[in-house]
Amino acid sequence: MHGVFVYVLSVSGLLVLVSFLPPLAARLRLPYTVLLAAVGVTLGLLLQGFSTFDGLGVISDFVDSLAELEVSSETLLYLFLPVLLFETALAVQVRRLMDDIAPILMLAVVAVLVCTFAVGYALHLVSPLALVPCLLLGSILATTDPAAVIGVFRDLGAPRRLTMLVEGESLLNDAAAIALFTLLLGMLTYRTDGGALEAASSFLISFTGGALVGFVLARIACVLVMPVHDQPLAEITLTVALAYLCFVVADHYVGVSGVVAVVTAALVIGSVGRTRISPTTWGALEHVWRQLGFWANSLIFLMTALMVPRLLSGVGWEHLFYLMVIVVAALAARAAVLFGMLPLLSAFGAAQRVSHAYKAVMLWGGLRGAVSLTLALAVTENHNVPNGVQSMVAILVVGFVFFSLFVNGTTLRPLIHLLGLDRLSPVEHAMRNRALALSLTGVRERVVDVANRYQMDPAAVDPLVAQYGERIEAIDRERQAEAALHDRDRVAIGLAILVSREEELYYQHFTEGIVSRAVVEFLASRAVGVLDAAKGQGAEGYRRAAEAFAVYSPWMRGANWLHRRFGIHGPLAQRLSMRFEMLVAVRMVLGELMLFTQTRLSQVFGPGIAAELEELLRMRQGSVERALEALKLQYPEYAIILQNQYLGRAALRLEEADFRAMHTDSIISQEILNDLERGLGKRRNQVEKLPKLDLRLDTAEMVAKVPMFAGLPTARLAQIGWLLKPRLYLPDDRVVRRGDRGDAMFFIASGAVEVMVPGLEQPIKLGSGDFFGEMALLTRQPRNADVRALGYCQVLVLDERDFRRMVQRDPELRAHIQAVAERRKSPAKPAAAAE
């Protein structure tokens, strides 16, 4: 049979077979991976037991093609592993992963090392194998397969945190275990010397180097995807190419872990790519990768399972004993990490506590799968590995994998049920009843409305309406019997819902083209912090974390320092522009959350809890409004430009939707639609450009606004402007500190400050056109008050030396300043300070 024909027929036949396995696994209530393994071994046994299936046409050719199919471990690793890893990592929510990054890293790295050495030393003590081959076997068995476990979790509705712990562990676990496997295989085949220090450094370099390669290539892909924006076929193709390029470049060219590179790249695309790839493409991309992952997982498992009968040739009773030893050693090592080391992280405050029920499921749910079988196949194909080692590794890995699948995998569902992890907590049960009652009431009303609209007979309508009434009454009875929820629990649940809804709205407005990419990334990351604070500290934590939306980031303060110290305006203008857009977006979303609370959450939690949630939202709205108002007052023209940009984005989105609706209704042809969308694209590029923020640092113009300089000739204003140094102070910045030496005078060009004079109950507020600090210059005494910026405040600074020169050259100006200074010596007349 021709080579290409063999591969086409065998692969297509296997795809037909796997298409029927998911519904069969659901019917049998078995994990899909367990059924895959069983079918693969069955096919392998059939191929071993029967030499030919003549007379069955295409079925005979399919069986013969499977018998002739020769797939090396290198083919499986390079063809399927990048897809399998990329798809798994792409589906991981990086922000959720970071919530439990400490226990995940403990299980992914420390547990791999513990399992490797526990299995290796245990096998070395009872078998004739040397230590390095035993450690190699341990590294192969350290890889875990999440496919079967996650499938069971989703079917049973296991807690989301448990699912994330297992999924995150398996994702990073494969990367660490394969990097360790590569190192040990090199030691076994004498490619490395095998020193402990060299081994540790090689592992560290391989792991961190792979992460660096994956990160760099993923960021490059995020840049390259911009020219093909709104081209779904091109954008998705670029991500597929990225998965393979990461693996090849890292493994073949750089000499580091290709597995780590692929995982890192997928995590970057999953977290950052959502805003780089066009919103219409992202959903299709996720669907394509789920399909590719399903194919890769199914084919790699079936192809390796087909080889199991061959790998088990030469099995003896002693192998059964060795298998029992490594099973006990692996479970003991995993238990030591879960119940011994993991609690230390919680004790030192490095991670949230993981319950014993979670640990028990994670202990029993550490299933092994296709990756372990593929690595074992790689050992058997390496001619530098002794035959005895090849046989032992193949037999024990296959035995361990199938023990974990057919024993652990089939009993995992009863274990989860026994521990009660598939049942709702009292809080969740109460929420479920409230939500169900709300839904059933709405459905009953809509059923009555539909019946009236279509004039249906009451005999047909009344029984159905009565059924819904009975269900609502049953839920009400159950709600009366259940334990009462504390208000703090209701508030905590409501806040979690609000923050999750807030993050969704940010991405929704980004999809609609209203919010820019940089702003949605910033706001989404801040929302995660608010959610964590709300979960851990309730309303108080939410209140404190939400204040971060209105405060100034270190980047903003750094840009302000560059402006004040070196006169560099660009970074500050960019940060102010982003801040303005961010505040507008938050204000818009908070308004939507307020409506969501009033219309939906009030029905679920009751008016009292809804009122408390609304009060927290109003608190945030007030903070955002004050920050936004300060920017508007400081830069009114810029505020108009940005608001116009928002409306422009929304208008373009409406135009696009209208054009597509007309095409769907056959009013316009595809050619006309293409022409209209090209015009939209040009205008969208113009709207998306960040408007330039004019800081209005023209000193001559600023000087002309100060009353004491009003009416001076333009030439004189320009001369004074050369002496004055503009500075921008952010809200709450300290402009002058009491007790400091008076070495400068300040003119307020725009904004406001408050002067906190000792002995006065209320601070003196100065605004645009006022000046202060002249008393210290005139008397050469220390500052007698603190001055703080109330909002964005632009001041003109005149130092002592320039001040004295200016006053000496202009007698009239000197007399005017002295007169004002005399009036301001008396704190009883604070109004004079505004002159």
From TrEMBL:
Record has Transmembrane as a keyword: yes
Pfam families for this protein: cNMP_binding, Na_H_Exchanger
Keyword Membrane attached: yes
Record SMART domains: cNMP
Transmembrane segments: 6-25, 32-50, 75-92, 104-123, 171-190, 202-226, 233-250, 256-273, 294-313, 319-345, 357-379, 391-409
Localization annotation: Cell membrane
Main location: membrane
Keywords: Cell membrane, Ion transport, Membrane, Sodium, Sodium transport, Transmembrane, Transmembrane helix, Transport
Domain of life according to the entry: Bacteria
Cyclic nucleotide-binding domain boundaries: 708-824
Topological category with respect to the lipid bilayer: Multi-pass membrane protein
PANTHER family to which the protein is assigned, alphabetical: SODIUM/HYDROGEN EXCHANGER, SODIUM_HYDROGEN EXCHANGER 7
Protein name as it appears in the record: Cyclic nucleotide-binding domain-containing protein
The species this protein was found in: Azospirillum oleiclasticum
